[in-house]
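Kindly review these tokens for lecture notes.

. . .
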Amino acid sequence: MKRFSISDIENLTGIKAHTIRVWEQRYNFFTPKRTETNIRYYDDQDLCMFLNIATLNENGYKISKISKMNSEEINLLVASLKENHYNTNIQVQMLSNAMLKMDDDEFDEILSTCIREMGMETAVAEIVFPFLRKVGFMWQVGTINPAHEHFATHKIEQKIIYCTTQFNKKTNKQGKRYILFLPPNEHHQVGLLFAQYMLRSNGHHVLYLGQNLPYESLTEVVNYYEPDFVLSVLTVLNTDTDVDDAISKIKTAIGTTPLILTGSLITNQETNKAEKIIIVKNIREFASIIEKLNMSIAS
């Protein structure tokens, strides 16, 4: 059984240590356990309860009301909120809770249900990407460690890959040819994997080259594969490489092939249309671009 200090609970749930102490005194919440040296600590069950209380509190339930509920009532109420798959705040919070507990089954269940109920495109746009932005913020402020982020992103990547394999038989011989890659020092594949999903779901040919690809290797593959488009995502770059430099290197590597770019680093980037660069600001815009460029192949 894990042991958490009050500062651990604060970091993992967002509930201030002072607030926890007040709740303990005023509402008789969570009488902490004590070590042999009288140092307070909390266990796994306490963490789960704190996460549930934080979820209810963030969704309009006052602590005075929550304090009158027993643990079973709290669990049932949170479960009922989770059933509202179109409440994006709840689903993002549920994924966050599952990540903080590193509960593999719970995370997979929440993600799978959102995709099934909302559809892949909506679930990724309104649940997954907002969740990942929250994860990034939590990582920056020290609420989570890299293991939490790795757990969550790999679960999401696995789900997108699985869903993408369902389109293997839909590839159309008349579909466009795409190369998808991440340049050196880029390792976040969720956006790239989802672009592959969208393209394959529309019958296009995708050569997925993954993360951290050297520019010289990209040149060789472009010459061999002769794609209609190259697509990349820019979210993190080396400190000695700026966005314009990265774009310039990609353009040099792919020659005259049109380039589609997305990612947090380039959503506000101004480009010259003569450069054959298409900037995609979000998922909805990417779907629209596919349609406008007459790239979508009806199955």
